[in-house]
Amino acid sequence: MSTTTEAPPQHDLPAGQEPPKHWKLGGFPDRRHVQQAAITIGIILVVIWLVQFVNAATGYRLDNVFGLQPRDLMSLPMIFTDPFLHLSWSHIIGNSEVLVPVGFLAAYRSLVKFAWVSVAIIVVSGLFVWLVSPSGGVTVGASAVIAGWLGYVILRGWFDRCAIDLIAGVVCVFLFLPLVQLVPNGDATSWQGHLSGIIVGMACAYFLSDRSPVKVRKHIADVNKRAEGLHVQEKLTKIHDDYSKRSTS
């Protein structure tokens, strides 16, 4: 004897719960998100400048202690400290001029995503610099993190299908991407940090978007679960109605 199963009916999800399929204008975040992003970037800026004052007052000794030294196991934890250190006043001024606008754009949609992006950039770019940079040197500076934020901002609008964020990304391409050194040119700039940072940031733009495979799979699972639940409920209602009819006949 063959048996057939009835497929669960299709149900539409409420608006806003489906992965974006079409472009949206993407309104500017509310005032609370903007304020949180501005405060966060302001705190980061204050911290690195306070560290710079202490570092300069001690003859930049902090660079040698908390800077990242390639392939030195004792120095590996410094991937979390070297972004807060700089080699000179011109170094920190140059980084600060880019850190403020790019960091704000990376944070103004979601501080949670911004935190994940920042941690991913620090860890992955730090490990890459530690592995491939020339021996005998010390790497310090926030430029790798800034390059990662830049990569995130450049592609976030595309993956989120948000026109405003896409425009912001295009503007950043023209204003700030030329400042990122992706290949060696003989100077002391850590092109390894810039290259790995921007790649990680771009990857985060994809994996943290609503179109990422993880979120799409979760969305499909949620849809199936809700459809199955509704289908079971409909069957139970039908059985109850049939029983009620039989009882009254």
How would you characterize this protein structure?
It is a single chain. The chain has two domains: 31-210, Rhomboid-like fold (Up-down Bundle), CATH 1.20.1540; 212-249. Helix 4 (111-132) packs antiparallel against helix 7 (191-207). Helix content is 63%, strand content 0%. The model is unreliable at 1-17 (pLDDT under 50). By secondary structure, the chain is mostly helical. It is built from eight helices and no strands. The protein has helices at 31-57, 61-66, 89-107, 111-132, 143-159, 163-175, 191-207, 213-248.
**Beta-strand residue fraction:** under 5%
What name does CATH use for the topology of the largest domain? Rhomboid-like fold
Q: What's the CATH H-level superfamily name of the largest domain?
A: Rhomboid-like
* Cα radius of gyration in angstroms: 25 Å
Shape: elongated
N-C termini distance: 32 Å
Unreliable runs: 1-17
Portion of residues in helices? Answer: 55-70%
Largest sheet: none
Task: Give the topology.
Blueprint: H1 31-57, H2 61-66, H3 89-107, H4 111-132, H5 143-159, H6 163-175, H7 191-207, H8 213-248
Helix pairs in contact: 1-3, 3-5, 4-5, 4-7, 5-6, 5-7
Descriptive keywords:
8 helices, Rhomboid-like fold, about 250 residues, 2 domains, about 65% helix, disordered N terminus, mainly alpha, elongated, single chain
